[in-house]
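User: I'm curious whether this sequence folds into something compact or stays loose and floppy. Could you predict its structure so I can see for myself?
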Amino acid sequence: MEQKKNFKILCIDGGGIKGLYSAQVLAKFEESFNTRLSDHFDLICGTSTGGIIALGVSAKIPMKDVVEFYENYGPKIFASKWKRFGGVGNLVLGFKQAICTSKYSQEPIREALTSVFGSRTISESHNFLCIPAYNLTDASPRIFKRDYGSLNQDNNKTYVDVALATSAAPTYFPIKEINKFDYVDGGLFANNPVLVGLTEYLFKWAKTGEFDGVDILSISSCEKSQGWSPTKRKLSFYKWKDNIFDCYSNGQSLTETFFLRQLINSGTLNFDLNIVRVANKPLSSQQEKFVNMDDASRQSMNILSSIGAKTGVDFKEKEEVKAFFKTGKTINPEDYGK
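Assistant: Here's the prediction. I'll summarize afterward.
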């Protein structure tokens, strides 16, 4: 019996410094299966911090080096002189974010990304790519891709510019301008990029008859409990703070999960669709105090790293995860026909 040939996609959620957790999960997979992720996936998708990791995968940068990137540069990227003053400083920083300017400068993250990616352009990616950002100028979603077929827009763009665009979280980092268009964080519409990846498959490969189905490995950022019961009903932007970002990212992810489940169970698909979601076990109440998208304190980093390592070790033993690493990727951007 001929073995089925499936198109394989790696998807990585957004989540700020919580990308340390995601990178640690993936580092455990590379270590356990003695491989590079790039060699096993046809398409790499990532949003915001997940987009940075996705670019790292496509450049064949070892995930242990990406872990070190977060550990070394995270505290610098999310640094502010006000944080040293504790609660009062955080109050000032919050008001700055709410009414004055972005919470953090773009320069530390630009310098960090340049140290890793240098002048590498999207044309040098070893995989097909989907990196979501939001185009403010056109008020439309924008997916940065490695060019193929009739696509010819992104190959000359640098990894650094695309990474800055997908991770430009509103109020946290400045807007990123590329070729006279303004971009912000792709998490505004696709914090979990599974549907982006599936749509790309449907757009380009579903009708070719080349594949029997799609296998998607979806990596969460470190997930917190999703419930929240504020004591007041009329909340300012400052009172919403990080919760507003947690709400829209959780809401998007749950909505995608619901629609995909309905699609899979409908029996209307003419190809196999398999989605494996890798997510952490529930955090303790103490851990949740330190896990936020811009908390790069030592306590937070230790929690993210340890939970990521534990999640990676747990999931590497699962047969549905092992299956992704039993075969290599099927297509290479360099030689795939137009």
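Summary: The two ends are 30 Å apart (CA to CA). The beta strands are 6-12, 43-46, 128-135, 140-144, 176-178, 181-185, 213-219, 272-278.
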